[in-house]
Amino acid sequence: MSREGARAGPAAHSSHVGTTLPRSDVLEWPDYFMAVAVLAAKQSRDPHTQVGACIVSSENRIVGIGYNKMPNDCTKAFPWDKEAASRLDTKYPYISHAELNAFVNKTVVDVRGCRIYVTLFPCNECAKIIIQSGIHEVIYLLDKYPDKDETRAAKRLFENTGIHCRKFKPKNEKDPVDFYSVFGANQEQSN
Ligand SMILES: O=c1ccn([C@H]2C[C@H](O)[C@@H](COP(=O)(O)O)O2)c(=O)[nH]1
């Protein structure tokens, strides 16, 4: 039974003021931050891969949120194609990545010592932004393109600069948030 609205018994009186217990099944911080990144990803208009990023301070404050999108005022003028005769006719040279947008949207001057929750392992360009901004930890949901040069270069950059990179593991065993919904079915990885 949900404890929402439950009444505190005699034992609870010793640790709670009043007779109504607070809800206890809230998200743990890491699950909350990754859920925010997943929610941000759902705003992306990229028809193939939606990415979300959430920058969090050492005091567990969210200081920047972003998702992959075309630059402002460019949504209609640029293609969403993955392939074309020329790379200039694909989305890749134009799309602004989730990590960059989270950094651009930051609410604080300095993100040194922050960590970033991302739904996709960062590419090399985003790795450079992460390193240059002083973010010290990357928590990613899915390493979708481990064999791409962009991912391999990002890993080299992170290894070289001592930036801790780890795969997100939900704290709540029951996993009340469908984190992988942003990637469609069967995308969960063990690495
Ligand atoms: O670090 C990254 C890497 C990629 N993205 C964005 C850029 C694109 O919109 C998609 C990748 O598209 P695919 O069709 O899967 O190649 O992800 C990002 O935001 N951050």
TrEMBL record:
Pfam families: dCMP_cyt_deam_1 (PF00383)
CMP/dCMP-type deaminase domain sequence ranges: 28-158
An MF annotation (GO) of this entry: dCMP deaminase activity
Keyword presence, Electron transport: no
Gene3D superfamilies, alphabetized: Cytidine Deaminase, domain 2 (3.40.140.10)
UniProt cofactor(s): Zn(2+)
Any single biological process term in GO: nucleotide biosynthetic process
EC code: 3.5.4.12
Family: Belongs to the cytidine and deoxycytidylate deaminase family.
Protein name as it appears in the record: Deoxycytidylate deaminase
Species this chain originates from: Geotrypetes seraphini
Name of the gene this protein is made from: LOC117359779
